[in-house]
Amino acid sequence: MTGLSIGLFVVMVAVTGAGMLFRAPLEPVIYHDLLKVASCKQRLPLDTLIANASASNPVAGRPKQLRIYDDADSSTRVLLSDNRWYYVNPCTGEVRGSEDRYGGLFGTMASLHSFQFLENGSVVAGTLALTFAIVLVGGGLAVWIPEALRKRRRAVRIKSNLTGRARWLNLHKTLGVYVSLIVLASALTGALQSFQFVRDALYTLTASKPPAPSPGSVVQAHTQSLPVEALWQRAQALVPQPKYARIRYPGKAGDAFNIDLVARDAPHVNAFSYVSLDPRTGKVLRFTSYAENSLGHRIYLTALALHYGWLSGGFIQVLQLIGMLSVPVLAYAGIGSYLRRKRPPRAPVSPRTTLTLKVARKKAEAENIQSFELVDPAGKALPPFTAGSHIDVHVAGGKVRQYSLCNPPGERHRYLIAVMRAEPTRGGSRAMHEHVKEGDLIDVSAPKNHFPLVESARHSLLIAGGIGITPILCMAEHLAGLRADFKMHYFARSPARAAFVDRIKRSKFADHVFFHFTEDQKQQRLDLAALLETHDAEMHLYVCGGEAFMNAVIDTALEKGWHKTRMHREYFSVERRESDSNVEFDVTIASTGKTIRIPTDKTVMAALADCGIHIAASCEQGVCGTCVTRVLEGEPQHRDVFLSDDEKNRNDRFAPCCSRANSRTLVLDL
Ligand code: FES
Questions:
Q1: In 10 A of CB 329, how many CB atoms?
Q2: Cα separation of 638 and 628, whole Å?
Q3: Is the CB of 626 under 6 A from ligand 1?
Q4: Would the CB of 620 count as within 6 Å of ligand 1?
Q5: Is the peptide bond before 345 cis (omega within 30 degrees of 0)?
Q6: How many angstroms separate the CA atoms of 192 and 268, rounded?
Q7: Do the beta carbons of residue 97 and residue 34 sit within 8 Å?
Q8: Which atom of ligand 1 is least distant from the CA of 656?
Q9: pTM
Q10: Do 300 and 202 contact (CB within 8 A), yes or no?
């Protein structure tokens, strides 16, 4: 949060600072009429220019400062007490206009950059600059350096394979490392200007003396002052033909007249020589050439030149510009990363696709199996679905369970699901059986289909085991509607435990259906072997039921020569492996570098949740795919039934609700 709030102010300082870097070359172009004049050989006396500036606005008050440039075509600038600069043609004396000291494009940027709109704004700006330098840049490097050393990398690289928060953080760190020195230099030189204590620290470090204060006048205050032009000529006798000069009027009667000049051979445009004159006699009270300034003060002047982008021409200016413009990108990437961390875990079902439906009918379909007819409370049409679709149902206690739709796919007025009370239960089916009543409202997702029909198949073989009848029944309804060639085999222990038997027997596709009621596993295998014996390349097989039943069907089909591309299955649940075979391993969060030990008795998802890292989940047993997460390094041990074999072989994703690791560490894209 510190970074977030300071960062927003720092972005403003950086963006305005980037603009200010090019003030010197751009200002004469943008404000050409004010700043540029036709050159001449003979300038008018400064007193004439000052008088004209004052006359242009009689209420503007007394002069405070003058700025004189040696370019023959530059206006002379006079600052009056109204805090406006008056631009005067030094050749003709014409006042070309005036502008508020912190007005116009660059004046406004200067005001924002140094917080001139606040009392003691430069102190605020300096505090921010120092905080930025110490907390953000220092803190950022403190986070980065150990990581870089640990990974033996010289610099962070932009990793194109990252997504989400990891991508933003990687961008933030990488950019931060490359521009940190530039940004740090700008922040520290800015603080040098804002704080006397920072300057004092510089003078102490360099064993230097600060410049002597401006001397007072030795002549009585009531004595008439010399013309400014005469004082200006006296200063030029000490520093001939300066590149630039600023004349600072005495603050009060009796003070010296100070003229700061940049000599023609000065190393940069902030390398001032200082002249203090008695305004009434012209006597030189103090003269310090740039070279005579103490080392500390010369460093200070050079640091300011660096801060303003006046040093060494374009190259450093461009570097500074890159540094300053990187600050908003850093802030954006940092804030983006922060917000992604703060954002609550993604809901298993997007709110846009969540429907609140009324339980219009609850009916016992078989032993331990209840059906639920769900309708829109206002009677509106429901989103359409295709054969094989399921919906996520939000049951009590925040659990989400997947149930296949078993009404004909053309229906829009209802969704029909059937729920078998599982033993042992994880709570979802029990809640549906015991707590959901007719008239209740429940939240469900829009239909999703992970088990679609291949409608181009010449023949379809549908095999249902127990409650696996639900998607298979929907498929049979659809294929019958298409008048497609199909057969359906329904395995159950007994008619009493088989749902929808009457509906099937009364259906128009009843003659396509074969019931197999047996508790005898051996008989089941014989039946499966017989019905999978005959097949051709145009036939597709669909199976749904318990994991053991589906494995038996798929294994038998493979034995009989079915190609796996023609076999399709839908899991309801998978049998959990005992944790005896589990081994401990580590998970590293790519975005933060944090490493978390996964114990043998916890899933990755649970162990991460203990550390405050929540992954959206739904089935929590590797069926639905909601929790699937990208793996950047390491080899997962896949235990889900959601990913295909090809997807599992790629090892770049895994289901943390059930899968573990074959390698000692997994690096996750979180
Ligand atoms: Fe369903 Fe992990 S939560 S696969």
A1: 16
A2: 11
A3: yes
A4: yes
A5: no
A6: 18
A7: yes
A8: 2
A9: 0.48
A10: yes
| Backbone φ and ψ of 225, nearest 5° | -80, 155
Contact present, 144 and 177 (Cβ < 8 Å): yes
How many residues are present in the chain? Answer: 670
pLDDT tens, residue by residue, 164-205: 555 666 666 676 767 777 777 777 777 777 778 888 888 888
Substitution site in 623, 630, 648, 660 for ligand 1 pocket (most atoms within 8 Å of beta carbon): 623
Q: For residue 457, report the phi and psi dihedrals to the nearest 5 degrees.
A: -65, 140
Ligand 1 atom at minimum distance from 616 CA: 3
Q: What is the Å distance from ligand 1's center to 339 Cα?
A: 25
Is residue 624 in contact with ligand 1, taking CB distance under 6 Å?
Answer: yes
Residue 604 Cβ inside 6 Å of ligand 1? The answer reads no
Taking the alpha carbons at both ends of the chain, their separation in whole angstroms is 20
Residues 6+ apart with CB under 8 A from 159: 166, 167, 170
In angstroms, what is the span from residue 444 Cα to ligand 1's centroid? 17
Q: In the numeric block, which tokens belong to residue 641? A: 């039934």
Atom of ligand 1 nearest to the CA of 640: 4
Question: Which parts of the chain have pLDDT scores under 70?
Answer: 1-10, 18-21, 121-122, 129-130, 132-137, 139-173, 175, 177, 216-223, 312-317, 324, 327, 330-331, 333-353, 424-426, 572-580
- Radius of gyration of the CA atoms of the chain, in A: 41
Instruction: State whether residue 31 is helix, strand or coil.
Output: coil
Cα(483) to centroid of ligand 1, in Å? 36
Identity of the amino acid at 523: Q
CA distance 441 to 427: 19
Closest CA to 383 of 349, 409, 348: 409
- What domains lie within the chain, and their CATH numbers? 2-117 (no CATH), 122-207+294-343 (no CATH), 208-293 (no CATH), 354-445 (2.40.30.10), 459-571 (3.40.50.80), 579-668 (3.10.20.30)
Q: Which amino acid is at 560?
A: K
**643: Cβ below 6 Å to ligand 1?**
no
Assess contact for 317 and 22: CB atoms under 8 A.
yes
Distance 58 CA to ligand 1 centre (A): 80
Question: Over the stretch 9-58, which tens digit does the pLDDT of each residue have?
Answer: 667 777 777 666 677 777 888 888 888 888 888 889 999 999 999 999 98
Six-digit token string for 647 = 């997807």
* 342 membership: H or E segment, kind and range: helix 314-342
Pairing verdict, β 390-395 and 399-404: antiparallel
The answer to whether residues 311 and 303 touch, using CB atoms and an 8 Å cutoff, is no
Taking the C-alpha atoms of residue 518 and residue 195, their distance in angstroms, rounded to an integer, is 89
Rounded to the nearest angstrom, the distance between the alpha carbon of 656 and the centre of ligand 1 is 8
Q: Are 243 and 217 in contact (CB under 8 A)?
A: no
Of 630, 657, 660, 668, the one to substitute when testing ligand 1's pocket (max ligand atoms within 8 A of C-beta) is 657
**Per-residue CA distances from 279 to 51, 96, 102, 492 (Å):** 17, 28, 29, 112
